[in-house]
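Consortium newsletter contribution from the modelling node. Members have asked for a concrete example of what our holo predictions look like. Here is one, prepared for the inosinic acid complex that several groups have been discussing at recent meetings.
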Amino acid sequence: MHKNLSEILITKEQIEKKVKELAFNITRDYQGKDIFFIGVLKGSFLFISELVKNIKLETNIDFMMISSYEGRQSSGMVRILLDLKQPIDGKDVIIVEDIVDTGLTINYLMKTLKTRKPRSIEVCTLLNKPSCRKINVNLKYIGFNIPDKFVVGYGLDYKEYYRNLPYIGVLRDEAI
Ligand code: IMP
Ligand code: MG
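And here is the predicted structure:
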């Protein structure tokens, strides 16, 4: 375990098993359709790559980058830093997120993308912190519900570090 962590919350093996399960459920639910995956950078880069490898349907994959957090506090401000390269009108879209915390980021993204008239739009998030929610959002696919702790690893960062860890861990207070 990395020295700046107090515990491993979710192991590499647990993540791999869960991602396969999510991909299985998505494949089942989208039979007969092509899926347009949108990865929200940077946090979802490992999750989306593992997820799409296990999808047994035709897929498009595109990315967006949005600013949400600076450090540990949600500012409530969301800005598109990188937009999609392709239109999504008439597409069945799944937004792939690393974590939904207050819900402000995903709520803003959903609202923005709905104006582009996709046929359907759903969210697949690896992690969910339900106790931190400030706005109600509908999350169709959730990997793990976790307590209100600041976590890093498997794509999630603290000040751009720890994204490469193959597991999800809780950052020590002293490391913040
Ligand atoms: P929300 O707008 O509060 O739902 O925040 C979502 C974004 O905040 C995520 O995409 C992450 O980038 C970041 N975030 C929220 N909680 C954590 C955490 O525990 N660790 C790392 N990043 C987090
Ligand atoms: Mg982040």
